[in-house]
Amino acid sequence: MSQLRSFFFLVAAVFGSVSALPSVTTDSDSASHQVGPVAKLVIVNKDVSPDGFPRVATLANGAFPGPIIRAQKDAVFSVNVQDRLTNKDLDLGTSIHWHGFFQHHSSFVDGPAFVTQCPLIPNENFVYSFQAKGQTGTYWYHSHFKNQYCDGLRGALIIDDPNDPQKYLYDVDNDATVITLADWYHYLSTQAPAIPAFNSTLINGKGRFPGGPPVDIAFVNVTQGQRYRFRLVSISCDPSFTFSIDNHTMTVIEVEGINVQPLLVDSIRIFAGQRYSVVVNANQPINNYWLRALPITGTMGNAGFNESINVGVFHYDGAPEAPPTTDPAVNVPVCAKPLIETDLHPLISTPVPGNPTPGGADININLNNFTEFMFDMNGTPFRPPTVPVLLQILSGAKTASELLPPGSIYGLEPNKSVELTIPGGAVGGPHPVHLHGHNFHVVRSAGNSSYNFDNPVIRDVVSIGDTGDNVTIRFFTDNPGPWFFHCHIDWHLNAGFAVVFAEDVPDVPTQDITNDAWFDLCPEYDKFINGTS
Q: Where does residue 112 rank: exposed (0-12), middle (13-18), buried (19+ CB within 10 A)?
């Protein structure tokens, strides 16, 4: 490993250092607008109070949520991320993950710190360049360095399909129909208690907390008679939410970049990292209706709807510019048709890799995830290596057994079907798990003991459920690289709930073409943490 650290300084001497620019300030109003796919994200510290409680946050372009990044299908992304962080009470490094993108031949810009890159340091820039070829739908981006995205560095990312096969179902799909759901904390992630608890729910960056001031809440505006494609994005660090709109139903048409057969529901439980597109027909009398995001993990009195917490306003044009006159905590509608994951099926049939029986893949791995009051995978908590896994591979490692950290790297051969079984029931759950570099078929869902090898939902984040569940997923190894697999409750990830799948290690150096700036990140970070920069 000392040879690898020497390698840092060798590449620094050869390629030079990462570019640096003077500090900049960003106007939050202009920053909240749509950007991309060629864009600049300036990562700054800023004092904000989205729920009425002031605190310093870590933000993209000074806004929470960060600006919507929007592109057309097959666009080339070039996002210049500039670290301008200054508050030493918070993490000063950063890295950005583009959640849901496969990053074929570009794992070096996938984003997770110490898996595919070293973090940026203050006054350093790095351009994330990639093409999400063939992918469309609803995604998001967030910091993937320690617990930094809990401090605010998160936002939605949309890829529009000009030939959307379900376009006939809706009339409106724009930035105003993106709905983000977030948890918000009154303490810094660097000062979080052993068991963190969020203080408020934010809908599109606005919300209230129990006992707090009556600050503005989110308004979602519609015109009677129009059909809206709402893109629901959970940018949560921890809780899942049950989302609903009083007096309205929703038709699910997309799940995490995959079109699905239209499914009528009246509520959706959405876990951290998950996304849905739903069509809502504004067919009710002109009025204001409560839009609800009830956190399932509720502490500190932040469950329920007292004091208009966990709500926004579904506002019809022509209605008063004010919240509904009813108390959201009184006569709460009973949802009779909640989303059930096993009712979701791809619009276009896609074969499940492997044989249609449990354990019928080429590679079958069981991942237990909690032992002795510790988050881990099969008894080993993930601890980030000092040298990113990808750099270890590019520096000569030929097999997964040569890669660090020991016990957390699983080698996968190319062109194989893989089945992962992940038992539920670990404390702090249900846990949503996310796979980088792929999406997957959910052949057994939480709350269900049967298997579907015919037409199961395809997604990239799935809840592993409760005790007795044995969620089972399948994917195919057609994407060389080190791919993170982890709980998307960010506190649990950083406590050790993760592994890396080192896929087709021998072919990574020829398939994954890095650049000089990427190689510069590690020597600069090494100097920064050692106080020599």
A: buried
273 CB-side CA count, 13 A: 29
Residues 156 and 140 sit within 8 Å (Cβ to Cβ): yes
Residue in 427, 423, 426, 428 with CA at minimum distance from that of residue 446? 423
Surface-to-core class of residue 513, CB atoms within 10 Å of its CB (0-12 exposed, 13-18 middle, 19+ buried): exposed
The H or E element containing residue 254 is: strand 250-255
The residues that are catalytic are 97, 99, 142, 144, 431, 434, 436, 486-489, 492, 497
Measured CA to CA, the distance from residue 127 to residue 110 in angstroms comes to 12
Q: Where are the beta strands (DSSP E) in 36-95?
A: 38-48, 55-60, 69-72, 76-83
Among 483, 497, 487, 95, CA closest to 273: 487
* Torsion region of 517: left, alpha or beta (phi above 0 gives left; psi -120 to 50 gives alpha): alpha
CB 215 within 8 A of CB 51: yes
* Distance of alpha carbon 61 from alpha carbon 524, whole angstroms: 23
Q: What are phi and psi of 40, to 5 degrees?
A: -125, 125
| pTM exceeds 0.85 for this model | yes
Length of the chain: 533
- Kindly give the confidence (pLDDT) of every residue in the chain, 533 residues in length, as a single tens digit, with 9 standing for 90 and above: 333 333 333 333 332 333 333 222 223 333 347 888 999 999 999 999 999 999 999 999 999 999 999 999 999 999 999 999 999 999 999 999 999 999 999 999 999 999 999 999 999 999 999 999 999 999 999 999 999 999 999 999 999 999 999 999 999 999 999 999 999 999 999 999 999 999 999 999 999 999 999 999 999 999 999 999 999 999 999 999 999 999 999 999 999 999 999 999 999 999 999 999 999 999 999 999 999 999 987 455 678 999 999 999 999 999 999 999 999 999 899 999 999 999 999 999 999 999 999 999 999 999 997 766 689 999 999 999 999 999 999 999 999 999 999 999 999 999 999 999 999 988 889 999 999 999 999 999 999 999 999 999 999 999 999 999 999 999 999 999 999 999 999 999 999 999 999 999 999 999 888 999 999 999 999 999 998 76
